[in-house]
Amino acid sequence: MSAPASAAKAVADVTRGMLLATIEIDAPPEAVFRAVTSEEIVRWWGSVDTYRTTSWTGDVRVGGACRADYLPRDGKPFATESEFLELDAPRLLVQTWRYVGADWDPSGSVTTISWRFEPTASGTRVVVRHEGFADAHAACENHAAGWERVLDWLAASFH
Fold first, then answer.
1. Which of 36, 110, 94, 28 is nearest to 61 (CA)?
2. What is the pTM of this model?
3. What CATH number does domain 29-156 carry, 3.40.50.800, 3.30.530.20, 3.20.20.70, 1.10.8.60?
């Protein structure tokens, strides 16, 4: 049996070092925003096939920080750390993104993620813009595929 098709779609523009990903979710923007900006992340972000989120802490305000810890299948934990740059709940969230302890990203580079939560007739369109990959073309492409997984996990959490 093959895996279900992804509802999320992402495209990487490696020459600009950025990607766009989107999905439609059958839930109001307030609920989707809360799922992305609270401990609810531990419930939905991840799978046994890839990695799972084991903890999330955050101070959701401009200038506030957050950290998420993950445990991948290989058993080598890593984390992400962020600072919130812009916040217009439940419409917009902009944050930095930096991996900590990820041996596949030893650079410690910082990228920026912009989340838009747009109301639709049936719920919310989520648009993620992840930028700052510079010349890391493979990382940009890999993150496009990763965002499709993440957004599918998010949508599935509302079913």
1. 94
2. 0.93
3. 3.30.530.20
